[in-house]
Amino acid sequence: MTTAEVSPVFSVIIPTRDRSGLFTTALRSVLDQTFQNLEILVVDDGSSEAHMSRYQELLHTIPVPHRLLRLVPTPRGHGPAYAANFGVDHAQGKYFCFLDDDDQWVDIQHLDRVANVLEHSTEQIDLILANQRGFRNGMAVDYPIWLEDFVDRLSGTPDDTGAYAVTAAELLGCRSFCHLNTTIISQRLYVELGGFDEGLRYEQDRDFYLRAIDRAQLIRFLPNIVSRHNIPDPAFAANVSTTESELSKRLYQLRVLDKAILFSTRPEVRRYAMQHRLYVLEHIVREAGRAGQSETAHYYGREVLAMKMAMTWNKLFQRGSACRI
């Protein structure tokens, strides 16, 4: 690793495993950034020797500070959450960025714009969020997946840097959440959160997002499309999203939402988690029914009914309390 005279503004963490070909495009998109006060940390989660040699070759000549961190190989790898945390443990930047090894940044001024937002703020910003476009089989999808329609929901105006001051409540009104490719978090907030939950193999990014917007004091949103996300093809088993069974994914989702219900400080985050937990349970009922697991479907179906009754009672209670005030 080369030594910078000062700590970098950004640490870019790229976890990878046996995808040196795709990784080449991701790495190039970081190197193409016009803002160069950054470092790159590549976390290899158990690649073969052939891929490891290619990673080393690619990184050997790049002009920015970098490290190639190799985890002890295991059959399934340590997972994206562990790899990201491991990268951050070795990072020196003031802000942390993440990029999937099969995706890429498409805006060469992405980090320049973020640095400008940070420079012109009189207070420390905890989170900077932006947009990306999804691609399926090489074709751009024509519907919102992340925060593509968020700017249309905002009532305020951007500041001189083009950034919007946004709240957790506004963000939770979106269809989905901000992908890690377009999430930049301060070192301070990352430490407060304790990083990613390494017990999650699926939707660890949603868990991280919910905890981050719950705890963040200042959040800025840049509406620019800065990243290309390649939606995993279920025909291949090279991605965590495609290797877990549907019911296994639902269990991870329940854990994410139960954590948000139990530990969030903002009531809007808790309400969001309660509502989405209901959706997940309804999915489990349908999927268990299709799999012929009628006893399981009935079990979770009773929980769905209980949750709906509890949420209805809670709304009536809140309405009655408001009337008395």
UniProtKB/TrEMBL annotation:
Record-linked InterPro entries: Glyco_trans_2-like, Glycosyltransf_2, Nucleotide-diphossugar_trans
Stretches assigned to the Glycosyltransferase 2-like domain: 11-120
One Pfam family of this chain: Glycos_transf_2
Protein name: Glycosyltransferase 2-like domain-containing protein
Lineage: Bacteria, Pseudomonadati, Pseudomonadota, Alphaproteobacteria, Acetobacterales
